[in-house]
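Review form for a predicted model. The reviewer records the input and the model, then writes brief findings.
Reviewer: anonymous (R2)
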Amino acid sequence: MKGKSNRESYEKVLNEYFNHLATHYPKLKDIQYRNDCTRRDNDKRTFFQQDRDRIQYSKAFRRLMHKTQVQYTQGLNVHIRNRLTHSLEVAQIGRSIARNVKANEDLTEAICLGHDLGHTPFGHAGERALQILLSRLEDIELKYYERVYDVKIDKNIYKKTDENLKFFHNFQSLRVVEELENLTEERSGLKLLKETMDGILKHTEDGLKENNYLTNLWLKKKDKVLVDFLESKYPITLEGHIAKTSDKIAQVTHDLEDFLCYSDVEKSCSLCNEILSELKKLKYFKKNRVLQKLKKQSKFYSHYQIHLLISELIGYFINKSSEYIIQEMIKKKLPKEDLKSFEKLLLFDENLELHKFLKERIDSYYIRSSDISRLDGKGIYIIRKIFNAYITNPRQLPDITQQTYFKNIKRYNKNLLEYKKNLSSFFNLTKFRNGDKIIENFYEKIKKGMSLKDFNIEELNKYSIVIRRDPFFFITLLDYISGMTDDKAYKDYSNLYN
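Model under review:
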């Protein structure tokens, strides 16, 4: 009877949550933020189903197939996970948890599929490379400007600006679905609902509390409804928390499976034995029939045995996370406004200890191994060389990217005055001789429809003072580099330096 009572209490709280969620978008005609032209009146799908499909059929989603998850294999091992398989597996875990707690499966899946759309080539190494490069623009540019323009620049002021230049893949994922992908020729973005975009942005806490100048520059042009949810680092929906948890589960299980199956046999066997010893300490696994069959091995574990072990780990995390959601919603009468307690969805009680154990072992055996470190180093080197080449001579960028740069200037600036303001807040060009005049001439050429290839060498050198410190150039360059696949980055590097 007690179990039935708890279930009824949970159903009541859950219904309150769904009613709260439904008030945002009750009918198509009531949607103010997402224009009606992108939603068909006779479409039988729910709005969240449409969001999921728009993400799944986007070009950015297809490119994930050729982006590194942890280990870049250059096609030598097709069984190693990539960003696409990772996103699909996160979505499957998310749907399982959502189904267990009767949350919205379509919203959960949409967030899971879209969470890594803005990821760089070469995994997190590529992301770190861009962060390092943005933080060291001073080293790249300072001596160049002082030599060419014969001025002394205040290094402290210059450095302060650079500290606000950030790149985080979760913000780039938001930019992909809101700006870079297209549903129509006239409009940009996939026109996703607020809940979907919030979950994509907040699947990780990276950058949520930092002053990111480049992000603020394009976001300030957006509808207030879009930017409101940036005020909190917590997802505004239960489904957002589920997606965030699913990503963590996938990282400590599927990344682990890649290492156990395709690494040194001795290390793989040793780690499997450690994991089995740890699991047998948990009450949940005491009478587990599958684990009873997996006796400790002295030489190696087959791929089948490893798959069984990973399957049991995933099942454990899914079940425990589902139980936690139900308990919290009953105990705290959640959620109407505050969903912060779900921040501990995966990291509680024995879950915390097991997750911590697995994360430490993956980092020690796999992520920080010499093999992965060498691959990461290669990826960082390639990104750095590409980045520096395009800053040195922007005309090396593809024609369409150069056109996009000028379109971004016109798109985010109504007039010369606004453009000057955005430039000066980024870097004070008036310190240079005839700085204002150079900006005015450059802006006029853009309005006339000229492109970088229309400038001769003398003009390009003259306007490089604007281009190389133009925030809209860096927005365009980061869009281009982060959108690359691993192979595309290699190809660009080869074309630039071979």
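Findings: The chain has 24 helices and no strands.
Further findings: The mean pLDDT is 79.
Recommendation: see findings above.
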